[in-house]
Amino acid sequence: MRFISKHAFERAARLSAALLFGLSLSWGAIAQQAGDSAELDKAYDAAFQELFQDPGNLDKSFRFAELAVQKGNFEAAISALERMLLINPDLPRVRLELGVLYFRIGSYAIARTYLTRVAQTEDAPQEVKDRVQVFLAEIDSRLTRGSLSGSVFIGARYSDNANSGPNSPNVLANGVAATLGDQFTNKSDRNYFISAQVNHSYDLLTQRNEIIESSGSLYASEQDKQKQLDIVFFEGQTGIRGPFVQKLVPGGSFKPYVLGNMVYLQDTWYQFSVGFGANVVLPFTQRLRATINLESKSEHFRNDSERPNASQQSGVEGSLRADATYALTDTQQVGLRASATSQEAKEKFNAFRQFQIGGSFTQLVAIKALESGPASVSANISRSMSHYNAPNPTVDANRKRQDQEWRWSVTSAVPVTPDWTIVTTFQRSTIDSSLPNFENHSAAITFGASRRF
Amino acid sequence: MGSNAKLGLAALSVFLLAHTAGALAQTRSDIGVAAAVNPQAEGTPADGETRTLRVGVNVQSNERIVTAEGGQAQMLFIDESTFTIGPNSDVVLDEFVFDPDTGTGRIALTATKGVFRMVGGKISKRTPVTLKTPTAVIGIRGGIALVNVAANGSTQATFLFGDAMTVGTAGGNLSVTRPGFSVTAASASAPPSNPVQATGDQLSASLGTLEGSAPPADEGGGESAGGGQVPTNQNVAASNIGALGSNSAPNALGAAAPPPPPVGGGQTGEQTGQAAGRQAQQNNTLQSSDNLGFSISRNFVGRITHATRLAGSTSSTLTFGLDRPQGSLDKPFQTSSVSGIVRRKDAGARQGAGVFSANLGSSGFFRAPLAAGTKTGISATSQPFGSGTLTGTSVLSSDNQFILYELTDQADNHRVLAFAGIPTTTFPTTGATFYKARDDFILGSRVVGLPAADGGNLAVTSSDTNAAIYWNTSLSTTAQRPFAAILGGVVGTGASQQMAFSLFVGQVKTDTTGTVIEGNFGGFSYLTGDGASPRLFDGRFESACNCDNTIATETEYDFYGTNAAHFIISSGDLPNTSTLSPFERFRGVETVQKYNPAINFNAATDTLTTRSAHLASNTGVTFNRQLTGFVAGVGASIVQSGGAVTPFTFNSRLVDPNGVKIQTDPNTNKITSTFDMVKSNGGSDVLFVTMGDKDTRFGTSPATSGKSAFFDDETFASTVDCDGTTACTGVATFNGGPAQDGIVTMVTTDDIRGLTGTYANCTYCSWGLIRGEIAPSSPLTFERFTGFWTAGAVQDLAQIPATGTATYGGHMVAFVNNNGAQYIEHGNTSVSVNFAGSGTNGTMTVSNFDGGGFTSTFSAVTATSPGHVFTGSMTGTGALSSVTGSMAGSFFTNAAGQAVAGMGGKVFGYGTVGGNAYRFGGIHLETCTTGACQ
Fold it and tell me: Which of the residue ranges B73-82, B358-367, B762-771 would you say has the lowest mean pLDDT?
């Protein structure tokens, strides 16, 4: 198998996860390659002693610098190379390597200084200048105070139960067996959609590396037949992320945020929410990473002629969610998630408590024909249980609604170009309910193309 | 040895000595070595002379290093750290302590001017390297920093890598942790500036001072001016440095790009959007019970009827109402669809737009809008009777199980009634259900069974609980589920009063055709100008829904909804005779809906704390017993041909309280009642009626008879409807002989609806209405009468106290015929009794009765068999001063066995008021207030 760089995996996995769940998969730094062996240490120490005894010896200086890089002691290599510049400043290759060394230790400003000097040197070898440009481009992106990234996903979806109609037309109405009107039974349909996510971060240039993180999501879908499901959804949130949990987990971050969203159905605004939350990222190890999210939002539904009682759903939703990912290997990752949601509503029969647990497995697959990175296949399964607070007299005044849902899906993401990825998802959902009105199953297939920016 | 050799040896010795000295000097306090030098750079050890630094020269603790313009040096220390000194710099290596075994130590320097770069080694990983300047103390932990000390001492420090760089002045301290940020300490007293991002120019300038200013002259790998080999680009290219660094892609190297921010909440727009859409759809479906979401198709049965004639006629012989043959005017349906059951909601909620659709087979469909509750102004969109539009009211019960339409055909002004519901399959088996009667739409009447023009349109109260079914059938196999109702009331008082009443007695029975309700009703009314004769209306009601369209095998549904919440009745079948019964006055279709008030009955004390106006809770005391009592009222004898009317009063014929006998049977929920009546003032004929257990029309078996209804000892009703002398023999007799026809109905009541007043109420002492008509064979008259009765448990005389006195209070109600005007009057009664053995006597005062009252004295309670009775005369007072009468009564016992807990009896009389004939007949009923009756 061709070696798949961790960053390619990260990008592919991140893309597919973003499409599925919006999770970011970050692997963290992969352990440095073998260099911490005892023999390397021994050779390094010996090289230092020799250098110390004969510091003007170039061979010994280079030898020491190479061993220092192998050992990961970049500072020592920096010293050795800077020493050369003190003697002979006309060394573009040394400046290039110094720039790369400073890049490696994350000191981008000084790295850029060294590399820029090379770029400005007229007689520097072209291959040196070419490498300089590669690194300068990367440094520029990492030093930008404000960064914008995101993705767009355009596709089509077919579902055999687009309207979430019940399995059977035999339902309950006021506790009496009734037959559901045909227009409300399960209907298959296609829809065409566009989904976009934009992330923006702005470095506040504080010593604690705090940044303002903002994101926005847009989803717009048009149904072929079930026009009542034509939906436009906006969501935005912003907050400040900082290393407030560094003491707990090095590299960890905490972000309080505010959010808002709005839903349009059939070109009429149907619901808006405002709320706040907190997100904690805990990179325990290079392979294990967890995210915890706590959120509360006030949801407001609006009545209209088609949905005259929508406002009965208005209320406050509180949720707690935890996700964890673990890289089994460089090409495999598993994930676990659990969440608890409490939804209040104006009418108690719309209020519920929901518990959900799920897992995922992602496999990267190298495809020789693909130059843009490996493809990925993800399998997801989740189980949720919802308990409603009170019976709905419209359905049955003596029976509360309790739903249990199984949902599983398989997603493949194939990067056909560096920018575009073809995504295919098959999903199946089965809901068992204490009320026949809400028992339903559905299968859907989604096909689309995604582009990151 | 020659001199040359000697010199050479001396030179060698000097050389050796010099190097030996250097070697000795290295070991003495060496902390590092000059690794690179551009002249001029000089070092002055603490206890030594100034020397020019060259590559390889060792440096010592406390050595001062000074560089001239163009002079630069890099010190390589034994802990692997390096300290680079730029031109015009002055620095002292204050302290250097290092333990190579532990890798710990301490480095401290003092700089007065110049540019410096510190790259930390092993010591700085544990202990910050300190660099003291004229304005600040800089600590560098585990990293790399640039420090620029100006000539005036102002210090600028730039953190490039590591854990942290601290900058402290007398004014404060701060820490820098982000690479590329600088802090300036302008003076020793001022706090250091906040960290700012170092500019490229700033960094470039600093780096420039720490690099050689120009390539060395000898670039061929030779030695530099300060010693050491000169590196070349070829050296670098030949080395392996590039392979370990720049040859790799940036992202492949150690520093990973920061991950993109995670999305709070974890759901993409697609997931959330889809979830929102699904939720909206499900809720819309849920709420579609309000708007076209559901159809209920199971067991929905009903009927639609188009009245062929308008209701209304005052003639007692004219039949009116509608014919009820099978055919186009009256259409049952067994299946129907109801699209969009509309849920009843609170005010303000959407009422919905449902549709009711009834499939009438070849006749087509009946379709009309359906809304929650009652909705007026609706029009049917399809009807089977013709082309006219049917407009009117729709009613959907709150449980969505019963639907009613009251419509008027705009083409011919005829009324149409349509109903449908989900038949009751499980009936109650205990307790009673109270019902509220809906107005009779076909007749346009508030009083069910009465035509509108015959009193049905009086503004009488019809919304009270006034009908009940008693479900308890567990006591015996022959027990019936009785039904009784009293509807209507009076409007006004005195001679201007008008009245309309309808009394129902029936049963709920289950046979092969289903569970149905059937029975008789008897109505009467007095309207202005009616004269002496009340209007009487009699009829039979039965299951309204002949829903399989075949008479022979009728499947009848009368009850709809859970626990028989609704039922509907229509007029009964005609008898299989060619002539209509003269008493068959009415036909129609009525509906009755359930009403369930809170009735509080305390069985332990045998007291009803709340009692409906007309029919009480069924949870009273019940047992087999005979109640005896009294009856009195007014009536009119109408000659069948010619119509001459002779008014009369009547009362219980027998002096003892056996003029009225009521035998209760809680095991079968039935009663048998006999009324033995004699006219007074207007004749002396005797009318006898037995009601309850015998009915020629429906068979003689009590099991099939629906002629009585027994709820408890205070709530019952009975009726008789005999047709023909044979059937009437022993049942309805006139002067001992059988009548041709007899229809009589009696029912208990608590008050007279519309007639204010206080009404007595006691256990085992009931009172109520009786109305009826007997047509004797001879003479050929109609003997019509209305009156009141009272009956209770009458003890033998021996049970009455022999001593003591008591007072009683209660009411007197009576029918009055005053100069042809008929009305019901109420008065208050007050009775004083002196129990003196056989001499028990008392006085009764009636007040507020028709502008006057009565006084009465009774004495000598006498024994009867069984029971006892007291009698007295009545003298009118006030406006009734010219009226006299008679009264009689008995004491009634209660459940506790108190023989004189109550008292009641008959009152009747005649006289003149204002010179016009005045007759009254009714009852009085009192309960104990004080004294020996308690």
Answer: B358-367
**Among A365, A375, A364, which Cα is nearest to A417's?**
A375
When mean pLDDT is compared across A432-446, B298-312, B321-335, B461-475, the lowest value belongs to B321-335
* pLDDT confidence bin for B284, thresholds 50/70/90: low
Q: How many CB atoms lie within 10 A of CB B805?
A: 16
| pLDDT above 50 for B11 | no
| In A248-348, alpha helices (H) | none
- pLDDT(B560) > 50: yes
For the cut 80, the answer to whether the pLDDT of residue A285 exceeds it is: yes
Residue B696 lies in a domain: no
CATH for A146-452 (2.40.160.40, 1.10.10.10, 1.20.120.790, 3.30.390.10): 2.40.160.40
State the ipTM, two decimals. 0.76
pTM over 0.90: no
Fold of A33-143: 1.25.40
DSSP label at B658? B
Question: Scanning every residue of chain A, which has its alpha carbon at the shortest distance from the alpha carbon of B339?
Answer: A181
Q: What is the pLDDT of residues A125-172, one digit of tens each?
A: 898 899 999 999 989 888 888 888 888 999 999 999 988 888 887 887
Q: Which of B67, B79, B206, B270 to mutate to test the interface with A (most CBs of A within 10 A)?
A: B270
Final residue of a structural domain among B422, B452, B487: B422
Residue ranges of B 408-467 with Cβ closer than 8 A to chain A: 422
Residues B44 and B166 in one domain: yes
B165: nearest CA in chain A? A207
Q: From A383, A448, A307, A248, select the one nearest B293 (Cα to Cα).
A: A307
- Give, as one character, the DSSP assignment of residue B243: G
Domain assignment of residue B810, given as a range: 619-682+752-931
Closest chain B C-alpha to A128 CA, distance in angstroms: 9
| Per-residue pLDDT tens over the stretch B101-123 | 888 899 999 999 999 999 999 99
CATH of the domain at B325: 2.40.128
Is B460 within the bounds of a domain?
no
Nearest by CB: A88 against B212, B260, B281: B212
- Residues from chain A that touch B292, judged by Cβ atoms under 8 A, are 181, 183
Among the partner-chain residues A82, A108, A306, the one whose CB lies closest to the CB of B84 is A82
Are the beta carbons of B55 and A93 separated by less than 8 Å?
A: no
Sign of CA dihedral B417, B365, B376, A182: positive
For residue B183, the chain A residues in CB contact (below 8 A) are none
Burial class (CB in 10 A: 0-12, 13-18, 19+), A168: middle
- The answer to whether residue A24 neighbours chain B at the CB level (below 8 Å) is yes
A270 touches chain B (CB under 8 A): yes
Among the partner residues B181, B204, B281, nearest to A228 by beta-carbon distance:
B281
How many whole angstroms separate alpha carbon B755 and alpha carbon B614?
A: 13
User: Which of A354, A371, A366 lies closest to A318, judged by CA?
Assistant: A354
Between CA A210 and CA A198 the distance in angstroms is 19
| Residues of chain A with C-beta less than 8 angstroms from the C-beta of B253 | 100, 103-104
What tens digit of pLDDT does each residue of B212-230 get?
877 766 555 567 777 778 8
Contact between chains at B265 and A96 (C-beta distance less than 8 A): no
Residue reference for tokens 């820098």: B176
Residues in chain B within 8 Å Cβ distance of A279? 262, 264
CB count within 10 Å of CB B611 equals: 21
Please tell me whether residue B572 adopts helix, strand or coil conformation.
Answer: coil
Contact B227 A56 (CB under 8 A): yes
Which of B391, B387, B388, B331 is closest to B360 using CA atoms?
B331
Residues of A in contact with B81 (CB under 8 A): 79
DSSP string, B339-357: ESPPPP--TTS----EEEE
